[in-house]
């Protein structure tokens, strides 16, 4: 006999944010959360309770002081009481507690998350607990909001959200940063017979979903994904992680690098507007101060400026000649733009986001479309980097070389074999449409929006060379 029970639509108790926005003051409520601080006086005790759903948490008031006795910083509790208007500063409502259930004890002498400001290094060392801080909670919620609004933008533009593989046979960017995947030895075979390659050929963790997105865009027209990428990035900068997330969009039937700029700009304006208008707890107080500037970028009536690499280098050279001590690296046509150059262009020349297009082919990846139309410099490719103040490069994109003969020539120049890239040539051979797209570094987006300088604080559990604690 199967027993049937009444349908329940949710088994989850309300979060503090839900409670604060929906309950009338007189209802008895239950609040689940972690204690952030406790203050005891003779006749009353106060505790700040947080469940990560609201920026401030909820002040709990204990007129029966003994009830607060078991509470320590960091412990988890279930409090029952009534929500009432708060006479105190900094909050509209408080919880007048009638009952306390201690769910998880926490020894305050050993708890690494103290109320006073903690150094970034200390929090990195206690990465498994750092989501208990206001800064990391806000960052995680900003990631959530940004990914939702990016998805909404692409959905509205007719894009299909697709899933691309993490394991791959190619190093899309050709920068030699792909991590190799090694299979564990099979216990059933003698070590001499263990296959070196699990997939029958060398396999890597993906550095970018682009090549797979191209295959899908050449059938579904407009596709995007938000996916982890892995790069054996040895330089320890505040813009690089070994594992990061990238929003990549790819679409067919586009012939102009300006289209790539327009879609990228549209998606970012949308995220900035959504984040500015949302009441979600995605900012710390300091970060909120950046909002007017971000809104100005989102609302400006004119498109974000676009400049060719050649024109950008000319501006940099003129500035370098006038102030020779500003840059560590002299700018010159044919050399990569250094991060100091990128920041100067965005911060001093454009005073805002700036697209730099048409880089020399030898500085970029093999798949980019050659600029060989009349009036264009054939030494360059149809590509773009988006530079923003405070950060430098936020995103990169290009038109992809859809002409089979040109692509084959580029593959020879870059030393890429048909064995790995035959399928990529096939995409051109069988009705390949002109197409293009871009990749937006998700942690860099969060860093730019929040003003948090290092991308290690823009991902919940970061990985970089020499560091993987959990
Ligand atoms: O410029 P990248 O290397 O471009 C690509 O990978 C293209 N295949 C993307 C495409 O067209 N679909 O990387 C794109 C962005 C960079 O602008 C940067 O924001 C971010 O990815 N990025 C990193 N972010 C954190 N840590 C790293 N090691 C990163 N490397 C790139």
TrEMBL record:
Keywords in UniProt for this one?
A: Aminoacyl-tRNA synthetase, ATP-binding, Ligase, Nucleotide-binding, Protein biosynthesis
Stated family: Belongs to the class-II aminoacyl-tRNA synthetase family.
SUPFAM superfamilies found in the cross-reference section: Class II aaRS and biotin synthetases, Nucleic acid-binding proteins
Traced from the root, the source organism's taxonomic lineage reads: Eukaryota, Fungi, Dikarya, Basidiomycota, Agaricomycotina
Q: What is this protein called?
A: asparagine--tRNA ligase
Annotated Gene Ontology MF terms?
A: asparagine-tRNA ligase activity; ATP binding; nucleic acid binding
Please give the superkingdom of this protein's source.
Answer: Eukaryota
EC number(s) in its UniProt entry?
6.1.1.22
Q: Where is the Aminoacyl-transfer RNA synthetases class-II family profile domain?
A: 152-460
The top EC class is ligase
A GO cellular component annotation in the UniProt record: mitochondrion
Instruction: Name its GO BP terms in alphabetical order.
Output: asparaginyl-tRNA aminoacylation
The record ties this protein, via PROSITE patterns, to:
AA_TRNA_LIGASE_II
Q: Show the stretches that span the lipid bilayer.
A: none
């Amino acid at each position: 006999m199967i027993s049937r029970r009444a349908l329940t639509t949710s088994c989850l108790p309300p979060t503090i944010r839900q409670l604060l926005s929906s309950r009338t003051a007189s209802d008895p409520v239950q609040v689940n959360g972690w204690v952030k601080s406790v203050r005891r006086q003779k006749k009353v005790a106060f505790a700040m309770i947080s469940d990560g759903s609201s920026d401030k948490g909820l002040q709990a008031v204990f007129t029966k002081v003994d009830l607060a006795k078991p509470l320590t910083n960091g412990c988890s509790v279930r409090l029952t009481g009534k929500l009432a208007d708060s006479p105190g500063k900094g909050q509209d409502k408080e919880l007048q507690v009638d009952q306390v259930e201690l769910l998880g004890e926490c020894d305050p002498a050993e708890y690494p998350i103290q109320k006073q400001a903690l150094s970034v290094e200390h929090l990195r060392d206690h990465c498994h607990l750092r989501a208990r801080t206001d800064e990391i909670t806000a960052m995680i919620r900003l990631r959530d909001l940004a990914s939702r609004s990016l998805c909404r933008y692409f959905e509205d533009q007719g894009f299909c959200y697709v899933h691309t593989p993490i394991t791959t046979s190619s190093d899309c960017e050709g920068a030699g940063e792909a991590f190799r995947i090694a299979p564990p030895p099979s216990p059933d075979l003698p070590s001499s017979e263990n296959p070196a390659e699990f997939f029958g050929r060398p396999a890597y963790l993906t550095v970018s979903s682009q090549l797979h997105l191209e295959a899908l865009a050449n059938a579904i027209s407009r596709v995007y994904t938000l996916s982890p990428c892995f790069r054996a990035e040895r330089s320890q900068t505040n813009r690089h992680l070994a594992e990061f997330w990238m929003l990549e969009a790819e679409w067919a039937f586009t012939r102009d690098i300006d289209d790539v700029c327009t879609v990228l700009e549209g998606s970012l304006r949308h995220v900035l507007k959504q984040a500015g208008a949302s009441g979600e707890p995605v900012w710390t107080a300091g970060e909120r101060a950046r909002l007017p500037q971000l809104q100005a970028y989102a609302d400006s009536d004119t498109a974000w400026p676009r400049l060719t690499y050649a024109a950008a280098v000319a501006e940099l050279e003129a500035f370098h000649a006038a102030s020779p001590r500003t840059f560590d690296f002299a700018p010159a046509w044919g050399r990569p733009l250094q991060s100091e150059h990128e920041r100067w262009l965005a911060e001093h020349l454009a005073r805002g986001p700036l697209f730099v297009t048409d880089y020399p082919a030898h500085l970029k990846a093999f798949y980019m479309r050659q600029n060989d139309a009349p009036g264009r410099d054939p030494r360059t490719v149809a590509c773009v980097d988006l530079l923003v103040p405070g950060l430098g490069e936020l995103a990169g994109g290009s038109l992809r070389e859809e002409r089979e003969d040109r692509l084959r020539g580029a593959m020879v120049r870059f030393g890429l074999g048909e064995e790995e890239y035959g399928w990529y040539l096939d995409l051109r051979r069988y009705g390949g449409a002109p197409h293009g797209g871009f990749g937006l570094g998700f942690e860099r987006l969060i860093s730019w929006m929040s003003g948090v300088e290092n991308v290690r604080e823009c991902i919940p559990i970061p990985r970089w060379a020499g560091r993987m604690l959990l």
